[in-house]
């Protein structure tokens, strides 16, 4: 006997529940990794370092805009990275009066350790998966993150509908987040 067809409402209920479980488990592990780098870098630090590493030095305002967060939040999150030597402040190459943030050699080393640890964790968690399953899951997760970014961009304008004007920007953001780093965050 075949399974009764799930209604759209039931499917969405299962989806929201699985997303909630994923969020809790991700927070429990802090998207850590394996080995000595496990849980050694919080999500904000990882995302900031990752962005600076991939896109190069930039000012606080540009970094905040690229990450979709407030400049004061970036300033607060970057301060301990500067204090610990993972990020350095340097003069803007085109305008020596302006200051930009850049990943320091020490920061790049730590970021590489954490990326490697997280890749190994993803390999362990998906050990029984085929490469095709990993690819499909990653593609769907990228698509889901893009949709969430688009939704949040619409809320930022006070618009409850799917945004149109900012969709391209968040799509670029989502595509960026997925390049070269399968776990993104």
Automatic annotation (TrEMBL):
Biological process (GO) annotations held by this record are:
response to stress
Q: What is a GO molecular function of this protein?
A: DNA binding
SUPFAM superfamilies reported for this sequence: Winged helix' DNA-binding domain (SSF46785)
Alphabetized InterPro entries for the sequence: ArsR-like_HTH, HTH_MarR-typ, MarR/SlyA-like, Tscrpt_reg_MarR-type_CS, WH-like_DNA-bd_sf, WH_DNA-bd_sf
Start and end residues of each stretch annotated as Disordered: 159-185
Q: Which Pfam families match?
A: MarR
Q: Where is the HTH marR-type domain positioned along the sequence?
A: 8-146
Q: Which SMART domains match?
A: HTH_MARR
Recite the UniProt keywords alphabetically: DNA-binding, Transcription, Transcription regulation
Q: From which domain of life does this come?
A: Bacteria
Official protein name in the record:
Transcriptional regulator, MarR family
| Organism of derivation | Actinacidiphila cocklensis
Q: In the record, what lineage is assigned to the organism producing the protein?
A: Bacteria, Bacillati, Actinomycetota, Actinomycetes, Kitasatosporales
